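Bench notes, bay 3.
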Amino acid sequence: MEQEKVHVRMLILAGVALFWMTAVFGRVAYLQLFRHSEYFSRAARQQRRTLEIDPKRGAIYDRNMQPMAMSVPVQSAFGSPAEVKDKPLAARLLSGVLGIPQEDIRERLDSGNTFVWIMRKLPPAKAEAVDSLNLKGIYLLGENKRYYPKRELGAHVLGFVDVDEKGLGGIEHEYDNLIRSKAEKIVVMADALQRKFDGNEVQGDRGVNVVLTLDEKIQFIAERELHAAIAKTHAPAGTILVQNPNNGSILAMANWPKFNPNAAVDAPAEARMNRAISAIYEPGSTFKLVTLAAAFDQNLIHANEEFDCENGAIEVAGHLIHDHKKYGVLTVADILANSSDVGAIKIALRLGSPKFYDYIRAFGFGSPTGIDLPGESRGLLRRLEHWGTYSIASVSMGQEVGVTSLQMITAISAVANGGLLYKPHVVLEMRRGNQVLPLEGPSSLTEPKRVIRPETAATLRSLMEGVILHGTGKVARLDGWTAGGKTGTAQKIDPTTGRYSRTNVIASFSGFAPINNPAVTILVSIDSPAGYPHDGATVAAPVFKRIAEQLLTYLDVPRDVPLGPQLVQTAYRAKQDMDVSSLNDLPPTDFSAQPEQTEETTKPEAAVEQVAKSPEVLMAADEGGDIAVPDFSGKTMREVIDGCTRLGLDPILVGSRVAILQTPAAGAKVRRGTKITVQFGDIPARPAKSR
């Protein structure tokens, strides 16, 4: 009987166990088969945290592959609050190392989050200090930080990024989706107590490298000369642009004020503004080029045609307009050279408003140029139906129209290259590794648009050369090259009176060189220079001269005007200075102290003869020496320089092409360091033999 009771109990126990096991396994089967996805997702959300780490942005280079922006590895401090046992102590120690208020760190550690940032993008010293604290629950994570090795150089073109490496200006913003690419991801695993126990890294795609049309040396020259002009005139702002007129590429874009993109957050918004493409101003007399271009292109005027400038005054629609001088009869060429407002108005009246408006639009004014940079302004140009009876007079001399510096230099380049309007651009190419990618979007190039006939452009180039040779731009005359340009002095509106100010102006000069085969177009614009005179001829034209002479030397553009003897050695040394490898060692080239050339001193033969008769050369030749002067006949400049350098002689070069004359003569015995003057030119043709 007792055994039966035990047996029954065993059966009951077995039944209960079977029922329990069936219930448990049934529940497990239910959870696995029907609720698996739900609970797996919930566990993953609780245990796993995916962090997006800043991707390594592509680099930005100048046209010669010199780095201008790059990403460098840095450390960021983060915390796992569940692992930090003594939060007050951790906050106090971290505050002392990082310079962050304790309250801020404590608030983050008490937030209850699985992951909190302590401080991003630490300098190496701070990262090392955090690591040395050896605090449990405080870790370092590798990230990327944008670095601009040339600091302010080209900052307005490059732009800048925020702490998350997102582009906020310039190229960094315009091509952010390509340069930035996809983010890298870190997966962090944590247990029920939110303690980190595992993790892995998911690599994102590398960003695209961008090669700019900028040349860092040309950019440096432009920024240096702009800074010098600002310091001299005490102007609050200014812009210098350098463009290749034959394809629209921007070689330099300098603005003042400037900023350091490594610390963009500390710079005021005004300093970060790219004035070259955003700031609108009335161009003043520079716009007379558009007036004359339209009239010439319509065959309404010719260069030697005379206009009566009526002693410097004209009345249009009840408004009396005065010239800056009381001119009488002037030719069209002299109207531009002397910048006569009355003459420009009379030409515009002959042209008529509809045609004038069409040419203004054709040159790109009133519309964005389409440059591959953000923030470009379209300028200000009222529709023709909104012009008043006085508007044609105002616009003809650069009033009642607002332009950007970029629009103005693009129009000047169209005159320089023969009448083609190119889309300005700053991106030369894009690369992913060794692969060159096709240009798309804003950087894609379009066919140039013809705005004036080649004959019109040639006439304007000749007239613009006259501005420099005998007009308002005399101080812009280059030593060794022909050039054309136009001065501009535009009065600014006084915000207190709503009238044109008598003291605040935009002083500008726009030009190109050489005349017949232009290599560069340069625009100089100085906003509100102090002192008097403050016109474009006084303030901006000398800056154009300094920049143009340095650039043409650097670019090896052949001289088309013979140099006087006192300028030859200065020019040669300037070229040597341009060849230095270090940008910081690039010295300024000062041509301002050179004497004015005359027709006689600019002749190559006169130059060689004058140098040959100098005391230094005569003394060296008379005293004799042990170095025989080589025969340089038919040699190139490079061969002459190399030959003189090997022998320790000091070459003075005059002209271009090949050597045709030298002093001292070949075979003469001279001392080391003797000046050897070599004239270059075309080899004279041999006379035909008589039969």
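Next record in the batch:
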Amino acid sequence: MLPVGWGRAPGRPAERRSPDARLAHVLDPVDPRVPAEQGDLDPAVQRVLDAAARRGVRLEIHRLADTTHTAADAARALGVEQAQIVKSLVFVAPREGGALEPVICLAAGTNRVDVALLAAVTGESEIRRATAREARELTGFSIGGIPPLGHPRPVRVVMDADLGRYPEIWAAAGRDRSVFPISPAALRALTSATVAEIAEIAPDVPRAGSPAADLGTRASPPGRPAAPGT
């Protein structure tokens, strides 16, 4: 057996080998269900928290390692169904002098908003989807992180009735990768939203599932039957 230190010059410490540069650095896993530290939040996220606090609600912010720019991204990061992701979509209705009034649609992550149905629910025949610039200027938040609340001015909110299919849904908290869980009923109350059937539906295709939470009275467009519970 060779003596310890054999092959080294006397008195010279053993060299500490550095990690192989060819090995990729592996980040520590991030548990999306662990709330973010409240004292180290982006100002945009803090505005959302403050808006909820003024309504007597304490939100739990979660910061994800992966992007949440799309509903599919957020669902993968959280390990939930895409329909549990709340898309905060900004629409605008024209006003005199070229002004625009924002309307925020809270849509289930798998749904597309039917603009004709939205126009009927809001009474705004010329309503349209906002551009990225308009959305930023009117809400104070960028696409990918637009929250249901915390905007600099009062905003009308219309909530997709399909969000009531789940006991818990997830919404953006003001910045990409920042989200919060909430019940559909609590989200409706927090945003004073009008709940309505606003999703595009293929002909003769029934909507899957049934509401799992009581969202209160739903608005129905003219000619369309009222939702159960109306």
